[in-house]
Amino acid sequence: MNFLIKTYIMNILKSSLFAISGAALLVSCGGSVAPVVSTPIGNIDTTPLKITPLTDAQYKNWVASDLVMDTIPGMSVDKAYAEIIKKQAGQTVIVGVIDSGIDIEHEDLKNVIWTNKDEIPNNGKDDDNNGYVDDIHGWNFLGNIVGENMEYVRIIRNLNPRFEGKSEASISSADRADYELYKKAKAEFEKEKQQTQAQKAQYDQILASVTPAHAAMTKRFGKEDYTTEDLSGISNPSAAEQQQIGVLTQMLSFGDSVPSVIKQLEGGIEYFGGRLETHFNIEKDFRKEMLGDDPDNPATKYYGNGDVDGPDPEEKDAKHGTHVAGIIAAQRNNGIGMNGVANNVKIMVVRAVPDGDEYDKDIANAIRYAVDNGAKVLNTSFGKYYSTHPEWVIDAIKYADSKDVLIVNAAGNEGLNLDETVVYPNDQTMVGAEFASNVLTVGALNYKYGSELVANFSNYGNSNVDVFAPGVKIWSTTPLNEYEYLQGTSMASPAVAGVAAVIRSMYPNLSAKQVKEVIMNSGLSTSASVILGGEKSNTDAFNTISKSGKMVNLYNALIMADKMSR
Predict the structure, then answer these.
(1) Residue 44 CA from chain centroid, whole number
(2) Cis amide leading into 425 (omega within 30)
(3) How many CB atoms lie within 10 A of CB 403?
(4) Which residue pairs, CB below 8 angstroms and at least 24 apart, start in 297-304?
(5) Which of 79, 359, 378, 420 is the least crowded, having the fewest Cβ atoms under 10 Å away?
(6) Could you tell me which of 67, 186, 80 has the C-alpha nearest to residue 501?
(7) How far apart are CA 366 and CA 140, in angstroms?
(8) Can you name the residues that pair with 139 across neighbouring β-strands?
(9) Tens digit of pLDDT at every position of the chain (566 positions)
(10) What is the DSSP-derived secondary structure letter of residue 491?
């Protein structure tokens, strides 16, 4: 499932439940360059906390900010381009984005989308003999699927014929493991479905009280964008007006205007309603009905189609992937939109993540497709807590490792310690050992330097999260030439994938393992105590909640990469 948290859910649901100067780098592949002589950013514990709120411009670019200069915990991207990269291009690097699809015609992405030059567009033939017909910009392993079940719902559906209505005493020892999985999945299903029903009902109730109150005040003021000052200025309000003022004043604490909050509420209702229709729908097998491929048969690999932005004409299903792609590589300095982290990148689109839990088979095939077609960095901004065929994905990760491909992976958004909970995919084991050297797992930072430095939703773990990067209120591309703030470890991962792409572009002699080491070892660290999981009672030193104890920093990474490459 996409590791993204939408702003409206965070704003309302979480808030209440209601009551470095550098010499020239590599100019072209294989060229020799003078060494970088910049000084790395060092101890940041003396950096003052930022007191003033961020401006709109700072919010939109905080990923690129520099902690020392700006007191905002970005990745020093602008500093790296200004002082080290300058106008040097490096090699073109293909980054595979395994996600929900991407709007490949977006104004800020269309010039950075990978094209398979060995394939003739739309001729219905597999010109390059890779098994995929007309895979011009990547491949869509989902076909026309958008909504999907959660993995535990699929487990229940598959095991119901064997275990529904049976007592524990009647289960044989041979069936015990499957039965325990069945019970666990049912408990998760019932809990999550009930919570979602309650959340939707809550949003429905709030909207039902806000809508008439807003209509009344709009009529009274002759405008929709009234303020809390306008409301408090009403003299001698009636009992009904007092109630309306109270409701609307509370709404204005969640947004700049009541219409914007209503839009957030409507979005939340749509989100929770969609979950009930797809994520928890035991009766509907989307895979069987809409794709026809058997997810339990690893032998079939050439299913789906080349429609990498997905089936929705409005491309709503491609929103997550489009946002991720923009963070990595939105065309820099073209006078429109925003700047991605990496220059000289081509984005390969691999659609394999539905609105729901992904299938292990699709992810394994997606990784192999991207690796076989030249990607050197993969971004995997998704994950789940149940997996029926984890060995297929593990084998694909190992395959990518053998082909020198770095996988940058989102840690997840449940505020959990991943040293105690397994999330899929990952290179983690419960004892901390890694089965591959090419996976870099990323937690999310907030833009607030201090105790709130870690995003309140971000997973963490001293052994199984590697680094942290910006993931709260991230401005990036969305379909149909739009831009939007989204947040989640889904946004932190592509920021690091962008850093990895820059390093691989400028220093192509470094292996994926070395690039991972550079990113982990060159970051900024602090011993300050931070809040974890959004719970003020749960705190730890920042430098102990990931394997590196660091925040990713492009400026420092380039200095270290230069030294390692010589």
Answers:
(1) 27
(2) yes
(3) 15
(4) 297/361, 298/361, 298/364, 298/389, 298/392, 301/131, 301/365, 301/368, 302/131, 302/132, 303/141, 303/143, 304/139, 304/140, 304/141, 304/142, 304/143, 304/351
(5) 420
(6) 80
(7) 9
(8) 350
(9) 887 765 444 444 433 323 323 333 333 333 444 578 677 888 788 888 887 899 999 999 999 999 999 999 999 999 999 999 998 889 999 999 999 999 999 999 999 999 999 999 999 999 999 999 999 999 999 999 999 999 999 999 999 999 999 999 999 999 999 999 999 999 999 999 999 999 999 999 999 999 999 999 999 999 999 999 999 999 999 999 999 999 999 999 999 999 999 999 999 999 999 999 999 999 999 999 999 999 999 999 999 999 999 999 999 999 999 999 999 999 999 999 999 999 999 999 999 999 999 999 999 999 999 999 999 999 999 999 999 999 999 999 999 999 999 999 999 999 999 999 999 999 976 556 789 999 999 999 999 999 999 999 999 999 999 999 999 999 999 999 999 999 999 999 999 999 999 999 999 999 999 999 999 999 999 999 999 999 999 999 999 999 999 999 999 999 999 999 98
(10) H
Check: CB of residue 440 under 8 Å from CB of residue 516: yes
CA angle 555–367–278, rounded 5-degree value: 105
HEC string of 263-289 equals HHHHHHHHHHHHHHHHHCCCCCCHHHH
- How is 68-99 classified by DSSP, letter by letter? HHHSS----HHHHIIIIITT-----EEEEEEE
Tell me if residue 250 falls in helix, strand or coil.
helix
Identity at 488, one-letter amino acid code: G
Per the listing, tokens 């984890």 go with 390
State the Cα–Cα distance between residues 145 and 125, nearest whole angstrom.
Answer: 23
CA angle 375, 376, 379 (to 5 degrees): 80
- DSSP element (H, E) containing 517: helix 512-522
End-to-end CA distance of the chain: 41
What the block records as the tokens of 454 is 């870690």
The answer, as to whether pTM is greater than 0.85, is yes
Q: Which amino acid is at 392?
A: W
Question: What is the C-alpha to C-alpha distance for residues 320 and 358, in angstroms, rounded to an integer?
Answer: 14
